[in-house]
Structure formats: structure tokens, C-alpha cells
Design a protein that fits this description.
The chain has 120 residues and is α+β, with helices and mostly antiparallel strands. The chain has a single domain, classed as Trna Endonuclease, Chain: A, domain 1, CATH 3.40.1350.10. It contains 4 helices and 6 strands. The chain starts with 9 loop residues before the first helix and ends in an 11-residue tail after the last helix.
Length: 120
Amino acid sequence: MVAARRHIAEAELQAAVIDLARYRGWRVAPFRPARTAAGWRTPVAADGAGFPDLVLVRERLVFAELKAERGRLGPAQSVWLAALEAAGAEAHVWTPADWQSGAIDSVLMRAVCTRTAPAV
């Protein structure tokens, strides 16, 4: 678990969220950077720059961008999150404060109501 009252790195937050999501029965796909000659890069193509850090699937689909306490969204990340929400997806930006408050666990515990087709 992530310890309280100290600086929490984004990688540590990601590991904790993945562990919690798996515990709650989610399938998780993280997108991690790799070290290249040009520094740390996340290998993506087409419009992939800024894609959220995690894709989580259970009875619903959740996208999560993770940020350290003072991390800020970049322009490409903001565009992706807005596009996902406009398409009806659930998109979040999570920080260590969200972990410590229980907000992340609240999202992962919430189930979606099953929809029934309208009567004809």
C-alpha cells in the first residue's frame, strides 16, 4: 500500500492502483514509458501521444491518468480525456490525494447498473 504523509511517486501510485484494481476484479492495461537514447518515451503511434496511463475493464470501462502530487496534465493528455468523456467513457485524473482519500477505491468499487431495453 502507498504510505501516507510522504511524497508518492507516480510509479508508486500506479503500482498501488493496479494492485487495488486487480483485487477488486478489474482487468488492467498500463502504458509505461521505456528508456530510449532520447530519454524516457512511451511508444505510441498515430494520435497516441497523451493517452491515459491505465485502461481498466470490469462491468464498465475506466481510463485513468495518474499524476504525482504536483503533476500537471499536458495538452495532449487533456485532449484525450476530453475526447473519451465526450464519447461517453469514464475518465479520471488520479493523484496520491485521491488514493489517500479513498476516492480511487470508491470508483473501483462502484458497479454499473445493468440497463434493460425499453419495452416496445
